[in-house]
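Quick one:
INPUT:
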């Protein structure tokens, strides 16, 4: 009998709120956290919208870290505080950190490039080598948590948060760890923004997932880490349990560098694998947190994939995308959406897909348009699809008293 693993703490950092209460309230209210980019000049890109976290003030002891590491460490502190854990009672040799990211700390590469093109060229010294590598993000979280023994950074682009949660679930199920922090973090990046702008993928005004007039995604930034621990340990210490992580599924369709299979085959395989791992059927799912980027192709393909897996039941399952409010936070996206799923299961409320005003005939599911919905959520599926064909689905379910 495999160990049952539950979520007992969340620490979201988003453009609509930092921490569980502020973030959840902002999402349920349909607050838009995107606006004109402030951190750099977007004049050459033909787009200027972003989901920057303007009110983020890193603690003084994190001043030397890159912004993504600051997000990751603070999200972990918030999650541990939310879980009401006694840090002194945690055995660091049995504790793990698994963190997903798309870009790591790109500002250091940006600084290097700026120095190299300056006249005369600048001297970047050793800062780049000691600050940029992605693995440092998880290492910093593990050190801050109390010297936790296991740390791993997973860079599977925009599905990385779900990949991290799946790996942490494996560690806990197999009794290789007793507690884990899992999630993702990414900072707003000139490099990332330029890449999506060159692809013509950034919306000129707002992110409108599943809308007929949708014109693209809006890059964002943020983080979330969740505390995972065995159900019996959580019950023994009287912890508040948001949801059980029932299972996960991964796939790689390897169809195209920046696009998934046009019929959604890879996305469907990830959902089917998650259902098998969770020992569930399509009839058991009561809410789907969509990847929902707002690009014409993604939303059509994702809708087709949901229909492929759930058949006629697809029309009875609420589906929503919080990227309509906070933008696409890259490697943090599915980690933040994991918090959304856990909170939806605990709270029986579903955040909306905002800016959905003109339904697309090809996107004809129930996307919870513009207003949050109260509904008993026994199970929630979190979907994430990334460049390179990386697909990941995680299922959360209610732990009944």
């Amino acid at each position: 009998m495999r160990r049952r693993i539950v979520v007992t703490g969340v620490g979201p950092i988003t453009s609509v709120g930092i921490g569980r209460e502020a973030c959840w309230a902002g999402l349920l209210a349909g607050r838009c956290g995107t606006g004109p980019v402030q951190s750099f000049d977007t004049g050459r890109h033909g787009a200027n919208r972003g989901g920057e976290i303007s009110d983020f003030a890193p603690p003084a002891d994190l001043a030397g870290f890159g912004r993504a590491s600051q997000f990751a460490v603070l999200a972990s502190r918030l999650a541990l505080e939310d879980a009401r854990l006694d840090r002194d009672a945690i055995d660091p040799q049995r504790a793990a950190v698994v963190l997903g990211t798309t870009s790591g700390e790109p500002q250091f590469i940006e600084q290097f490039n700026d120095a190299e093109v300056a006249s005369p060229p600048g001297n970047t010294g050793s800062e780049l080598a000691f600050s940029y590598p992605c693995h440092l993000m998880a290492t910093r979280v593990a050190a801050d948590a109390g010297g936790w023994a296991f740390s791993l950074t997973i860079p599977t682009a925009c599905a990385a948060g779900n990949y991290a949660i799946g790996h942490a679930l494996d560690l806990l199920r197999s009794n290789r760890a007793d507690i884990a922090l899992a999630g993702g973090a990414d900072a707003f990046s000139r490099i990332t923004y330029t890449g999506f702008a060159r692809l013509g993928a950034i919306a000129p005004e707002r992110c409108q997932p599943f809308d007929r007039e949708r014109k693209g995604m809006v890059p964002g930034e943020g983080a979330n880490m969740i505390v995972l621990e065995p159900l019996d340990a959580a019950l023994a210490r009287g912890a508040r349990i948001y949801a059980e992580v029932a299972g996960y599924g991964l796939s790689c369709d390897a169809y195209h560098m920046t696009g998934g299979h046009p019929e959604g085959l890879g996305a469907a395989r990830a959902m089917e694998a998650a259902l098998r791992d969770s020992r569930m059927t399509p009839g058991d799912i009561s809410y789907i947190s969509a990847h929902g980027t707002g690009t014409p192709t993604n939303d059509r393909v994702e809708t087709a994939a949901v229909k492929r897996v759930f058949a006629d039941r697809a029309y009875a399952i609420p589906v929503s995308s919080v990227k309509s409010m906070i933008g696409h936070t890259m490697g943090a996206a599915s980690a933040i959406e994991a918090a959304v799923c856990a909170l939806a299961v605990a709270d029986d409320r579903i955040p909306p897909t905002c800016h959905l005003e003109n339904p697309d005939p090809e996107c004809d599911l129930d996307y919870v348009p513009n207003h949050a919905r109260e509904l008993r959520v026994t199970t929630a599926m979190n979907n994430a699809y990334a460049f390179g064909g990386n697909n990941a689905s995680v299922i959360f379910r209610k732990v009944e008293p």
